[in-house]
Design goal:
Helix content is about 5%, strand content about 55%. It is elongated. It has one domain: monomeric porin ompg (Porin). The longest helix is centred in the first third of the chain and has 13 residues. The strands form 4 sheets. The protein has a 12-stranded antiparallel β-barrel with strand order 3-7-8-10-11-12-13-16-17-18-19-21. The chain is mainly β. The N and C termini lie close together (about 10 Å).
Length: about 425
Amino acid sequence: MKLLYFALFAGLALWPHDPAAPATTATNGSSNKLISLFPNLYGPTGIVLPNAEHAAHFTSAFQSNFSPLVGSIVNQLTSIPIPSPASGFLYSFDSSLGVYTRSGQSFGPIFAERAETIGKNKFLAGVSYQHFNFDRLDGLSIKKIPALFEHQPAANPEFQKDVITTDNAFDIQVGQTVAYFTYGLTDRLDVSVALPMASANIEIVSDATIRRIGTSTQPDIHYFDSAFPDKDRATFSAAGSAQGIGDVLVRAKYTALRWKNGALATGLDARLPTGDEYNFLGAGSVGARPFVAASMRRGNFSPHANFAYQWNGNSILAGNFQTGVKGNQSDQLQFAVGFDMGVTKKFTFAADYLGQQQLQGNRVRLVDYRAANGAVFPNVQVRRARLMQNAASLGLKVNPIAELLVTFNLLIALDENGLRDRVAPMIGLSYTF
């Protein structure tokens, strides 16, 4: 029976949750990687109008304007919470009976960590799936983000006054199936591994309009080519999807202190760059996350608190993939405070407040661009700043039979900082042997 359960979890972990997703594709650009969708939306040199007698080049600012979006995706990938690999069941050695007995009246938290370990020679296998459909970027709807393109220096200063405004709609979805395994080396030491299968789907639609500030009486200077029905307006689009293995996580957790109805543990997570960073399936860098977890038990009520520091290395995603220059991904401070409560012997409710602060994040805000004739157009401005994100985790664990747990959870964004999904669902199964 144990081998049957193990085979079930392994099969679920490797089974793609989006079988209809095609191989990575891109309608624009020379690369077929998702990262190329952003800078190559209008072509490799930006917006170039077809007038052969005038170099009508508008600044290729799309990549720089939307680098925070790319950066937010990367930061999200390095900080998407995965279910705790700790067992919902705890075992302690009963010296009078000479055997390990199950203890505890609650099945533990979902995204947070408790200090107790699973027990010597105990083994946990689990699988979970969560889905993110991002809809906000620093308070802006990603279905309508403006960006403005200025004319490059020209011999005729009137030509240079024209601008192109764009309204941009993004559809960004990320799915993650995680198989995780935990083994109790001793009564105090657990080792765990998480094997993610990730998917990413991105669609971009940009509606561009020529604003004739300096050439209002000369429509033959700046215009879109004949591929577009309107010489003043054009729509550009790009789309792609990818799926594959994500970044593997390895963990060790040690219960350093124990006291009556409580414990304190320390641990370390190591992130291995096994995911394809060019397709947003991985962070593209090694990461290390030391953490501390404290928990107590009062009957069926178990409060807990966690604190961690996420260190991230250098990645092409934080630099310039077109030149091959890597940049340093932002480190993060992370914490969790909450409780889990055994409502019945078969049912546990878990609630957590989750916070993380990116020490060097990208922030986006709307600003007004004033044209040469006094007209005002919306534009986005990028700045470097600390980024604080807060979320609530509300879920439940059900024990239908034996040592099997079924988990349901909602991750609810409590702010609009960075790239956010208001509510991200998760479902999972785990079995302890």
